[in-house]
């Protein structure tokens, strides 16, 4: 055996702990973290992923975002629906990312070592995969806190601030519990959650349907540059959700290695797109009926006023359960991020830690922010970070033809396949940074307008430009190295 081969083998022994049995059952906490899922431990079908992604996307915030197209951006209903249809094509991207999970048998936060290098990946994951996850946990919990707090006050709870904090803490605790039990619980429970949420939202929408102005038309229809500005801003708002799900490999990594990639892509993409499209479409139509004041604290508040007493609590419960489903998945992925960057912590304590961080952020936000401010902040940050990281991840999968060797991803010693230059992959890091800058330059929101976006008359080209810059640069800079790596494997 050569010295290099011996070094690589030793490094894999040291970096990859001895194999032991991990229990993946819905009735017990999942002890596996980033450890590779061996072939004899793989299970499940690609179709299971449909409900895994449906439950988080049955979100009432889709109604708010949809309504903002007609209320704030001034689009006609048919124009909003066309933008929604176009943006739904982006759901294929988390589907493509998902196929890397069964190929490598580990989490996306480890797979991305191939993109950024062993050390470079630590920077990306520490920021995006862990700290930012805590921020977005808080922003989602804020929505549930406002809704739950409002219901408690209607039931006679004496203090509004205490009500907000109480709902935030309880929601966060249940969310962390979901993350602790992990993959098997999510796989089993999210099907039931998706069905229950669908029934509740169908009842809400059915009750509201007779009062909607289906023939709504803008009193002053947009045309020319203002119309294109609103259309591109709407696309950016819709793009934020599918581009944020770069953790889809975490949910698919237990699938058998021979699962057809096309089925994984289809189940993940359709689970993402169907629920979101239906609720957002209804929100677009609803925007022609409710007033602009309904968006001040979120359209869900105005809906709460219109619902009968028996349906209002179920609606609030649906909002909270959806938040738990979405944040449960985020916490689950974030719990593996600390491990992937080298922190000596098991997955369950890591999930608790991220939950505590998110809860602290939530309490700060509910005491100082309105719901609409939180949503704007979330969408602004999401696009700048998620567009380039998603684009680079997908580009690597395509260039590498989804060939990832799990054990090699754990070789953290100099000279390893993904050590690159002093632990950093310049092509990956340059592509992400350049894409983030491009996204910010073309962004156009009420919170921030990039100079290039402003120069173009507030056309928001942030999502397509950010993705094209990142993917194009990565293909150009990383292509030769990837071809050498795949040729030798």
Please outline the major beta sheet. Answer: none
Shape: globular
Say what the CATH topology is: Hydantoin permease
Q: In percent, how helical is the residue content?
A: over 70%
Q: How is the quaternary structure best described?
A: single chain
Ranges with pLDDT <50 over ≥5 residues?
A: 1-18
Report the structural category. mainly alpha
Instruction: Supply the CATH class.
Output: Mainly Alpha
Q: How many domains in all?
A: 1
Determine the number of helices (DSSP H or I, runs of at least 4 residues): 22
- Provide mean pLDDT, rounded: 88
**Rg to the nearest angstrom?**
22 Å
Distance between the termini: 18 Å
Fourth-level CATH superfamily: Hydantoin permease
- One letter per element, helices H and strands E, the order comes to HHHHHHHHHHHHHHHHHHHHHH
Strand content: under 5%
The CATH architecture name reads: Orthogonal Bundle
The overall strand count is: 0
Task: Describe what you observe in this structure.
The chain has helices spanning 3-15, 48-57, 61-71, 77-87, 92-98, 100-104, 108-111, 113-116, 118-154, 160-181, 183-208, 224-243, 248-252, 261-286, 299-306, 312-340, 347-368, 371-400, 406-409, 426-442, 451-455, 462-488. The chain is mostly helical. It is globular and about 65 Å long. It has one domain (50-216, 223-244, 267-488): Orthogonal Bundle (Hydantoin permease), CATH 1.10.4160. 70% of the residues lie in helices and 0% in strands. The two termini are 18 Å apart. The protein contains 22 helices and no strands.
């Amino acid at each position: 055996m050569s010295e290099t081969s011996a070094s690589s083998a030793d490094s894999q022994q040291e970096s990859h702990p001895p194999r032991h049995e991990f229990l993946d059952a819905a009735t017990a906490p999942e002890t596996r973290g980033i450890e590779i899922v061996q072939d004899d431990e793989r299970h499940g079908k690609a179709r299971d992923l449909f409900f895994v992604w449906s439950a988080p996307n049955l979100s009432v915030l889709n109604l708010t975002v949809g309504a903002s197209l007609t209320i704030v951006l001034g689009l006609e209903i048919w124009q909003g629906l066309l933008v929604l249809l176009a943006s739904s094509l982006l759901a294929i991207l988390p589907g493509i990312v998902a196929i890397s999970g069964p190929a490598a048998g580990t989490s996306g936060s480890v797979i991305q070592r191939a993109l950024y290098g062993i050390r470079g990946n630590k920077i990306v994951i520490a920021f995006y995969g862990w700290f930012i996850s805590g921020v977005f946990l808080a922003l989602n919990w804020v929505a549930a806190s406002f809704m739950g707090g409002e219901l408690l006050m209607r039931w006679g709870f004496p203090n509004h601030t205490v009500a907000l904090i109480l709902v935030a803490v309880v929601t966060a605790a249940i969310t962390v519990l979901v993350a602790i039990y992990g993959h098997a619980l999510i796989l089993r429970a999210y099907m039931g959650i998706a069905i229950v949420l669908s029934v509740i939202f169908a009842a809400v929408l059915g009750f509201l349907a007779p009062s909607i102005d289906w023939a709504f038309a803008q009193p002053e229809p947009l045309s020319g540059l203002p119309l294109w500005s609103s259309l591109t801003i709407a696309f950016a708002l819709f793009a934020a959700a599918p581009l944020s799900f770069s953790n889809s490999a975490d949910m698919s990594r237990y699938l058998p290695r021979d699962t057809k990639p096309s089925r994984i892509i289809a189940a993940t993409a359709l689970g993402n797109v169907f629920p979101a499209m239906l609720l957002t479409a209804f929100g677009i139509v609803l925007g022609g009926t409710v007033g602009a004041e309904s968006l001040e604290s979120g359209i869900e508040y105005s809906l709460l006023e219109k619902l009968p007493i028996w349906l209002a609590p179920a609606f609030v419960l649906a909002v909270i359960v959806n938040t738990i489903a979405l944040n449960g998945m985020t916490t689950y992925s974030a719990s593996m991020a600390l491990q992937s960057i080298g922190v000596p912590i098991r997955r369950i304590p890591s999930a608790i830690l991220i939950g505590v961080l998110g809860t602290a952020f939530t309490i700060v936000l509910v005491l100082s922010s309105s719901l609409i401010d939180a949503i704007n902040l979330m969408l602004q940050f999401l696009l700048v970070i998620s567009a380039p990281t998603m684009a680079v991840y997908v580009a690597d999968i395509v260039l590498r033809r989804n060939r990832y060797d799990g054990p090699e991803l754990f070789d953290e010693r100099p000279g390893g396949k993904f050590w690159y230059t002093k632990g950093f992959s310049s092509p990956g890091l340059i592509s992400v940074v350049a894409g983030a800058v491009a996204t910010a330059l073309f962004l156009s929101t009420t919170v921030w307008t990039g100079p290039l976006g402003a120069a173009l008359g507030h056309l928001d080209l942030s999502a397509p430009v950010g993705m094209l810059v990142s993917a194009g640069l990565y293909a150009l800079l990383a292509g030769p190295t990837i071809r050498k790596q795949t040729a030798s494997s």
